[in-house]
Write a sequence for this structure.
C-alpha cells in the first residue's frame, strides 16, 4: 500500500482545490475532476473504473468504513488521512462520514453517439441538482438505457446531484446535447418513437400509449417544462392522468412515473 500523507491544515492547497471542486462546476470541467463524498459513493466511483486521483479519510472513518476504503485504496493515486476539521471543510452534509475522493470525470459523450435502440430519457434545462440525481437513480433502477442532458442542465457531478443519485451517475450512460429539438429530430430519423411529457388535457395519457423498442421520452424544466421547439419536434405528447387538483408534478416525480410505465409496457418489469 502506498504511503499515506497526513493533512491537518484547512489551508492546505490540496484541500482548497478539493473544496473548490465541490463548489464550482466550471472548475470541475477545467480540471476534469470532481469531488465525491461518502464511503459508499466513493467506493462506487472506484468500482466503476474511474481514475481516483486521491482519497481523503479521517482516522475514525478509517476504522468505521474500512471495508469501503479497501475497495478505494487500490484504485487511488494518493491517500490522505485528514483531521476532523479538514473533513468539515470538504463536507456538503450536516453529518459527514469523513470519506471523500477526487476522481476524473467520465468522458463526455455527445447525444449523436446514442445507440440505435433502447429506452432513453431526455431532460431539458433541469436546474435542481436533487431532482436530477433522483431522476438518474430512478432511471438506473428501472433499466433505462441512458439519459440525455439537454441545454443547461445542472451538473450531474455536483455534490447534491451525486448524493441524490446514489452512484447512478457512475453506472448509467449519460449523453449531452445543446439543442434538444435537434436531438429529437435526429432520433426520429433513426426510427425512434419520440414523446414529450406535458401537463395538458389533450395529450395522450401515458397509460394508453404502446412504446416500441426504440423510444425517447423528453421531460422539461421544473418550472417552465419543455421548450415549444422540443415539444413540436416530438412525434407525440403524453401526460400523466391525475385525479387530484394538482396541475402538475415535479420533474423527478413525473419522470419516475413515466419511465416506470414505459418499461412496464415494454415488458421489462414483469
Amino acid at each position: 500500500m502506498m504511503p499515506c500523507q497526513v493533512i491537518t491544515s484547512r489551508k492546505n492547497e490540496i484541500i482548497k482545490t478539493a473544496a473548490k471542486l465541490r463548489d464550482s462546476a466550471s472548475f470541475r470541467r477545467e480540471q476534469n475532476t470532481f469531488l465525491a463524498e461518502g464511503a459508499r459513493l466513493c467506493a462506487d466511483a472506484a468500482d466503476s473504473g474511474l481514475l481516483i486521483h486521491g482519497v481523503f479519510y479521517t482516522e475514525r472513518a478509517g476504522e468505521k468504513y474500512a471495508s469501503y476504503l479497501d475497495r478505494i485504496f487500490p484504485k487511488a493515486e494518493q491517500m490522505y488521512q485528514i483531521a476532523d476539521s479538514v473533513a468539515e471543510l470538504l463536507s456538503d452534509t450536516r453529518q459527514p462520514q469523513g470519506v471523500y475522493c477526487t476522481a476524473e470525470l467520465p468522458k463526455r459523450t455527445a447525444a449523436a453517439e446514442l445507440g440505435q435502440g433502447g429506452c432513453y430519457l431526455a431532460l431539458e434545462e433541469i436546474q435542481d441538482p436533487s431532482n436530477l440525481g433522483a431522476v438518474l437513480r430512478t432511471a438506473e433502477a428501472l433499466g433505462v438505457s441512458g439519459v440525455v442532458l439537454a441545454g443547461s442542465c445542472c451538473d450531474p457531478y455536483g455534490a447534491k446531484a451525486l448524493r441524490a443519485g446514489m452512484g447512478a451517475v457512475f453506472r448509467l450512460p449519460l449523453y449531452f446535447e445543446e439543442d434538444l429539438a435537434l436531438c429529437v429530430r435526429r432520433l426520429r430519423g433513426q426510427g425512434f418513437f419520440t414523446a414529450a411529457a406535458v401537463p395538458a388535457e389533450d395529450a395522450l395519457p401515458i397509460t394508453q400509449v404502446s412504446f416500441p423498442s426504440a423510444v425517447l421520452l423528453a421531460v422539461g424544466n421544473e418550472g417552465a417544462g419543455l421548450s415549444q421547439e422540443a415539444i413540436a419536434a416530438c412525434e407525440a405528447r403524453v401526460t400523466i392522468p391525475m385525479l387530484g387538483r394538482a396541475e402538475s408534478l415535479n420533474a423527478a416525480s413525473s419522470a419516475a412515473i413515466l419511465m416506470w410505465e414505459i418499461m412496464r409496457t415494454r415488458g421489462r418489469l414483469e
